[in-house]
Amino acid sequence: MTPDDREFIWTQLADFFTTADVAAYADFPRLAEFPLRDLREIFFGEVAIVCGHNLLGTTPSLSEGFDPDWVKREARRVIARRARGVRGRAAYLASRLVYRCLCGGVWREVEAALARLPRRSAP
Length: 123
Prior knowledge:
Layout: H1 3-14, H2 36-51, H3 68-82, H4 85-102, H5 104-115
């Protein structure tokens, strides 16, 4: 998977944490190119940590989705923290566990939307 592919996945999955109709996005079907296990790993290991806070409070609804540049910047920050030694890895794992528990329902929405797409393998 290329860095551009990963950034594409971040921006597509991030908007499931908003009121945007992500499955209607013109680029959404491209997610079918990626293995579901990779999408799940990126969702819980990167995207949920960045965007899951949107589920925790009474924030204004984001009908247009997250700013893609912000999502990319924050996901890179999560990855960098994960690589920063024992304390960074521990903080990352704690965040991942919390957001895995909180965001299971969002992942089920992602899976349902993906299930409606014809699956194909990445080149």
